[in-house]
Amino acid sequence: MSNPYAGIIDKYRSHLEIPKDLPAITLLEGNTPLIPIPALASFLGEGFELYVKFEGLNPTGSFKDRGMTVAISEALSRGARITVCASTGNTAASAAAYSARAGIRSIVIIPAGKVAAGKLAGAIAYGADVIQIDGSFDQALDLVVKLSEKHPIALVNSLNPFRIEGQKTAAFEICDVLGSAPDWLVLPVGNAGNITAYWKGFKQYHIERRSGLPQILGVQASGSAPLVLGYPVDNPETIATAIRIGRPARGEEALLAASESLGSIISVTDGEILSAQKMLASAGVWVEPASAASLAGLKKQVDEKKIDLGGKKVVLVCTGHGLKDPDIIIEGFGKAKVLAPDLNSLEGYILNG
């Protein structure tokens, strides 16, 4: 039996392309739940199984921890004393946390005014040096790549191949729980590292255990959909901050994953994303807007009769917790009801409301 208290490096070490005996810098990431969502399955159709892989329950609240444990472990093993990343938020918090765990300095470059408060707070809390630039994520990524090429500073964005090694373990976990790959995997696509990693993981599991392969549906926000449009987006805009990226670093690999899996990459509007976020919350799963893109994309394909779900197993990847980006919920809530502090007022409101 595997150690339930192991992080992903020790759990899947023999399946990872990492240096032999790599010491693990871990916060016991991974082992996130695969949650059945029968109520939403009934809403979308009949005769299929729907699950959410809730990556928001990783230590820093997003899937980034899977890749970061491997990237930081490898960087430390070769003597790195500084890490750097560009981020729309989740990478920043994860890089900061794992760098702190390793006892090394973390530099985070973010686009000014474009990072959700919950994510920025995480990076600061974990002790990162946070630098804002008056520009986009894509410009920030270009800067950190050049910085890491010029100085002995470890780049821990998803361009780092060790990030992909860690993130592919989510595919292993899904197969371990279901006994095989699902028929469809649906996930948000921003910088495209995650879709690349999932496909790599499923292909490896298929070779090792003959588990089958899923079709993959990648989902971008319509205001930030370079892979759907077929060209870069210079000024991406969407409420889904985690996927507000106009030039995906692993875009070609994402398109290949969709093609090889006989799937596709589509876009959804911000309105469809927010509606899907509410639907997931109604089933007890609160995710940040970018995560809800997966359900929004699946619903759109079903509504347009482009996917037949009959008899299928479908997994929605929800990449980040709702606490990562609470402002969108608070802004739409309005003022809370204020009552007098007595039982009659409370009864009147509850029983007659």
Strand-helix topology:
Blueprint: H1 8-12, E1 34-36, H2 38-44, E2 49-54, H3 64-77, E3 82-86, H4 90-102, E4 105-111, H5 117-125, E5 129-133, H6 137-150, E6 154-155, H7 161-167, H8 169-178, E7 184-188, H9 193-209, E8 215-221, H10 226-229, H11 251-260, E9 264-268, H12 270-282, H13 289-303, E10 313-318, H14 327-333, H15 343-352
Parallel strand pairs: 2-10, 3-4, 3-6, 4-5, 7-8, 7-10, 8-9
Antiparallel strand pairs: 1-2
Helix pairs in contact: 3-4, 3-7, 4-5, 7-9, 8-9, 9-11, 12-13
Kindly summarize this structure in a few lines.
It contains 15 helices and ten strands.
Which key phrases capture this entry?
four-stranded parallel β-sheet, 2 domains, Rossmann fold, alpha/beta, 15 helices, 44% helix
Description:
This protein is α/β, with parallel strands linked by helices and 353 residues long. The protein folds into 2 domains: 8-61 and 163-330, Rossmann fold (3-Layer(aba) Sandwich), CATH 3.40.50.1100; 64-160, Rossmann fold, CATH 3.40.50. The protein has 15 helices and 10 strands. The strands form 2 sheets. The chain has a 6-stranded mixed β-sheet, sandwiched between helices. Strands 5-4-3-6 form a 4-stranded parallel β-sheet. The longest helix is centred in the middle third of the chain and has 17 residues, at 193-209. The chain is globular, with a radius of gyration of 20 Å. It starts with 7 loop residues before the first helix and ends with a helix.
